Structures are given as structure tokens and as C-alpha cells.
Amino acid sequence: MDWDGLRRELGDWYERVRRDLPWRRTRDPYAIWVSEVMLQQTRVKTVIPYYERFLERFPDVAVLAGADLQAVYKLWEGLGYYSRARHLHAAAGMIMAQMGGRVPSDPQVLRRLPGIGDYIAAAVLSIAFDQPFAVVDGNVKRVLARVFLMETPVNHPPGHARFQTVADRLLDREQPGRHNQALMELGALVCTPKRPLCPQCPWTAHCRALQSGAVPDFPRRVKPRRPGEQFWVAGAVLKKGRLLLTRRPDRGLLAGLWEFPCDRMDGAADPAADCAAMVRRQVGLHCAPPQHLVTVRHAYTHFKLRMALYLCPWQGGRVRLDGPDHFDWVRPDQLDRLPLHGAVHKALPALLQALRGQ
Ligand code: SF4
């Protein structure tokens, strides 16, 4: 394989076609770190407005570290994978407390920060600090699998090291940041998952999949297990024009996000009655028979959710002292001030419509 030719042709191609993205206009390690965290599992087009709002509100590590986590969640709302926001915030705190307020350029130190794994570390170190670390994400794996006709499945963690070895060998050590971005750009714009645009590719002369007519067969994948669907019942308790919202714990599923009292009830025979009992059990309130408003579906990272939302008119009782750690009675027009999780968001229009009709 002509490694020098691959590097040169990739770099030249990138200089010609690169997209002008906001995080490519800076060498600030903090801004690059934020962009890479947001870009994990999320499309560029979606990330741009979030990135711009985030940098405007939290322009540097110090401001982010001093911010309330709820404010960070609020700005992250809709981007999903909220643990990324929590880790970013916690890491900013560590940088201020232990690292003199500067994003570390030492790989060992950087990797100690929460949420920074191989990929983010390599991206920040190469793009912001010109250090020779190769990034390997889904785009990179797909391109490498095709160019080098690699049989290793791209979605099987034990195979990751093989892709890393090839990416390390391929890395342009003179311009590692540009090289990494170019390889990811190639995967995003040309060597796409379906119908790659091979005639526009700078590597047509090298690509083994193209030469052997095997492009549709690569990359290889192992069949993933389908995530099961959970059924949740949620009760929007209405008291004197306000709705009861509770906040999920700071660790675990959908950590720190707000929702209506809810519980998993796979196979519930009478969800309305179960909803009233759940509200009593969880928050200690009595309500009139719940009225079904809507059932929504939402796909989270590790599971799919079907959630039935009920309107529960308050009839008596106070929120139990040993109930939720955080709760609030919120006016319907103020619901969008809280960071809500995706299923709650989807159910809101039906709730607001029902309240308008009362
Ligand atoms: S020639 Fe086609 S399959 Fe090969 S790397 Fe380029 S776009 Fe991908």
C-alpha cells in the first residue's frame, strides 16, 4: 500500500472540499473538545446550533465549571446522551480545581477527565495541540474497512484495536489534526454508509473494495441485538393550574432530567388505575381518575420506550417528605424552562392541548 500517497491525496482533497464548520475556525482546545463531545452519535447539522449556543453561554472552562448543571442540561436538551453534558461539566470543574484552568495537553492527564476516552482525547490532542494521535470513529472504520478490505466487523468492540492499528499507521504525523478531520470528512461526505460516491473519492486508485467490486459488502457488521421496548406510565398531576414535575437522580438512566412521576409497567392490565396508584406511591398525592392523553414512543441509546401519559387532577395530599429528591409545581407555560427528557417532550403538545380545553 502506498501510505504516503494515501496521506497526500487525502490532505489535498480535504483542502479542496472541507466544510466551513464553526469548530474548524478555532484552535481553542476547549471549543474543540465541546464540539467533539457534541458530535459523538450526533449529526453535524444538528450540532451546529447547539455548539454555537453553548459556546456563547459557556465561552470557556471557567464559566462552564461555575455554571449550574441544570443550566447545562437545559442547553443540551434535545441533543440526547445527557451523560455527555454531565461529564463535560464535571471535567470543567476538575480542570479548574486541579489543572490550573487549562485543558491539559498531556494525554495521560487528559484521559483522566470524565467522559474523555480514546476518541475525544485523540481528536483534542491532534486538532488543538498537533499531537500524533489517530482518531477512530464509525466514519473512519467504514472508510478503512473498504480501502483495506478489512473483515473485522465495525460494530464489534473487540475489533476496535485492529482499526486503531491501521489508523495509527496511516496517520499523517506532520499534520495529524488535518489528517484526522480529513478522514472523518471523507467518511461523512463521500464514503457514506449507503451508496458511497466513489467517483468523487481521492482514493479510487488505492481502494481494494472498489477494485474488487466489493464496496456494497463492506464494512462487515455483526448483527446487533434489538433493544427491547419498555412501557412506562406517567401521571401529570394538576393542582391549581400547576403541574408536578420531578427530577431524576443525578446518576443512571436519563440522569438529572425532569419528568412527570412515572414508572415502568410492562404488561399493565389497567394503566389508568395503575397510574393513580403509582402517583400515590411515589409522591403521596391522591388524584381523581386519570385521563389518558397520549401514548408516545421514543428511542433512547439502550432501549426503546412507549410512554402513556395521563392527566391526574389533584384531590388531596402533600408531596411526601421521603418522595422525590427534587420536585416543583410548574405552570404549563413554564414547562419548557426545565430540561425534560425526550418522551416527555413528545407528550407535551397533547397535555397542553388538554389543559387549554379545560
Ligand atoms: S473508493 Fe469508494 S469505497 Fe473506496 S474509500 Fe473511496 S468512497 Fe469509499
UniProtKB/TrEMBL annotation:
UniProt keyword list: 4Fe-4S, DNA damage, DNA repair, Glycosidase, Hydrolase, Iron, Iron-sulfur, Metal-binding
The enzyme's E.C. designation: 3.2.2.31
Gene Ontology terms, MF aspect: 4 iron, 4 sulfur cluster binding; 8-oxo-7,8-dihydroguanine DNA N-glycosylase activity; adenine/guanine mispair binding; metal ion binding; oxidized purine DNA binding; purine-specific mismatch base pair DNA N-glycosylase activity
Keyword DNA damage included in the entry's annotation: yes
Gene Ontology terms describing biological process: base-excision repair; mismatch repair
SUPFAM superfamilies: DNA-glycosylase, Nudix
Note describing how the cofactor binds: Binds 1 [4Fe-4S] cluster.
CC cofactor: [4Fe-4S] cluster
Pfam families assigned: HhH-GPD, NUDIX_4
Classification via NCBIfam families: mutY
Family as reported in the entry's similarity comment: Belongs to the Nth/MutY family.
The protein's name: Adenine DNA glycosylase
Taxonomic source organism: Desulfatitalea alkaliphila
